[in-house]
């Protein structure tokens, strides 16, 4: 089973690139972030034509997450478990942002895996309400991941965490030092998830770091390989034991009108 996460940065603008990636790589499960589409505008029929089932949690112009499963490979439609973490946005009177979607995924063999798709808040600028919101959201996420852990189900939490976990996860510590993605509080919140027993799939198979999943559109970051790793796949022990390989589909970042993220994936036995 191949599970993947892809911050698409606008599903309508990147739809041709997204469909290319799905057709070329055929992930069993794909978690999408920043779909930037209201629920009624989500292009579900486009994915159905490719053989993918979909559920989504949209929002006008911002955020939004979705989970796709490969029906051609025998995967059933995602069975939604929960959307949202019950935390409002940083603006006064703002409701909950569309950043969390959780579902059970069942394959042809009848085995079920819990999949969580997240788009964690960026947190910039800091200090301020956006950074406070980021940390509060991470607290809520940890609590929910603890509840999933207690269910003793095989689970994976995939998405754009907007956290650079370690110094070797960025091209330049100096360039990112004042960014919310690399603050001690952000890193500590991410580390607490690992301390709870979750496995960082990409880090496990790349212990020396140096793997990027994001390159900014500005200042020639892609051409200069000025990237960093913020897209992560965290696994429960059962799935970690089945981990075979991981990768980043870098070439898709270099295509015309591509997202500023590259798809990140993990292959699991069974």
From TrEMBL:
Sites where the protein binds Mg(2+): 7, 34, 160, 162, 260-261
Region (Disordered): 250-270
Active site: 119, 160 (proton donor/acceptor), 261 (proton acceptor)
Limits of the Endonuclease/exonuclease/phosphatase domain: 4-261
GO molecular function: double-stranded DNA 3'-5' DNA exonuclease activity; metal ion binding
Keyword vocabulary terms for this entry: Hydrolase, Magnesium, Manganese, Metal-binding
Annotated EC: 3.1.11.2
Superkingdom field: Bacteria
Cofactors named for this entry: Mg(2+); Mn(2+)
Residues marked Important for catalytic activity (site): 231
Protein's UniProt name: Exodeoxyribonuclease III
UniProt source species: Erythrobacter crassostreae
Phylogenetic placement of the source organism: Bacteria, Pseudomonadati, Pseudomonadota, Alphaproteobacteria, Sphingomonadales
């Amino acid at each position: 089973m191949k599970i993947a996460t892809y911050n698409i940065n606008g599903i309508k603008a990147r739809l041709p690139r997204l469909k290319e990636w799905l057709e070329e790589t055929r992930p069993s499960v794909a978690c999408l972030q920043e779909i930037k589409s209201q629920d009624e505008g989500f292009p579900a029929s486009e994915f159905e034509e490719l053989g993918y089932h979909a559920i989504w949690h949209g929002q006008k112009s911002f955020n939004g997450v979705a989970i796709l499963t490969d029906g051609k490979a025998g995967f059933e439609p995602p069975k939604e478990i929960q959307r949202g973490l019950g935390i409002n946005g940083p603006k006064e009177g703002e409701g909950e942002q569309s950043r969390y979607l959780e579902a059970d995924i069942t394959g042809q063999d009848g085995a079920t895996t819990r999949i969580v798709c997240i788009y964690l808040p960026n947190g910039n600028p800091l200090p301020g309400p956006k950074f406070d919101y980021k940390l509060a959201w991470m607290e809520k996420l940890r609590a929910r991941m603890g509840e999933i852990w207690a269910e003793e189900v095989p689970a994976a939490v995939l998405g754009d965490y907007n956290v650079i976990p370690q110094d070797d996860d960025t091209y330049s510590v100096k360039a990112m030092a004042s960014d919310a993605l690399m603050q001690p509080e952000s890193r500590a919140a991410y580390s607490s998830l690992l301390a709870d027993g979750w496995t960082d799939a990409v880090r496990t198979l790349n212990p020396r770091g140096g793997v990027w999943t994001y390159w900014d559109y500005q200042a020639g970051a892609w051409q200069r390989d000025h990237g960093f790793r913020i897209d992560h796949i965290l696994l429960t022990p059962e799935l970690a034991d089945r981990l075979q390989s991981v990768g980043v589909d870098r070439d898709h970042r270099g295509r015309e009108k591509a997202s500023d993220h590259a798809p990140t994936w993990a292959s699991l036995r069974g």
